[in-house]
Amino acid sequence: MKQDPLERFDQMAACASGEAAPSTAVVDRVLDTLHQRSRIRAIRESKYALFGYGSVIAACAALILFMMSTGNDPLVALASPFLMELP
Amino acid sequence: MDMDDTRDIAAALAGDELAYRRLVERYQNVIGVQMHRFSRNFAVRDELTHDVFVEAYLSLRTYKQSAPFLHWLRKIAVRVGYRYWTRTQGNGNEIALSGHDWQQLQGDQPVPGDVSEAAELVHALLARLPPPDRLVLTLIYLDGCTMAEAADRAGWTVSSTKVKAFRARNRLRQLLEEDQP
To answer: Which residue from B144, B6, B140, B118 is spatially nearest to B65, judged by alpha carbons?
Structure first.
């Protein structure tokens, strides 16, 4: 007599659940991947740090140049770009 | 909570590579068996196991020691395996089933006595279902989870897991009752 397919499946799955898989050894690969990732992260972080310091240095240099070119009165120097000379 | 795990997790978080090595060595076979449910190809199984431990390391800070480390790893394993299924679904990787295989599945032939043969057939059949159905049936039938455990591993609620299992079984029945070559 033909068995109900779901009952049959239950039996086969119960049998299959006891299957043993061959052992796995991934520890070296895992550690290699983690090393590579940390190296990439370190490079990326140093690049960002370089951009950060670079932009601060550039801003300071621009400010010094601006102060030098506008004389001794810093208030006038700061306001001068916004002042319009009347004809 | 295993004291060795607690000590090794704390050391791994502090940057001790050997501590994480010990954790991987302790659990790689258990997780390997679990990943074998997601792919019967050994190379893929090893790749998935590797991904589980890399992902676990990267989110180790989020591990709350309220449950055993293995439970937490198993959840990550389910996520990694499920992602693999959704990525490879429908790309022709289905294992072909012969007419004899279908007869065995449909009950016209005796149940295979060999565990590997039965596992091969069950895996090939489940691979024909959509990933959520496949996952719930794999967790319940092959991993021997209760509904609550399956829900916990898959990140679903218990009630939605029950509904998913019910629907998955119906789809499985339809699949088994279809006329196959």
So the answer is: B6
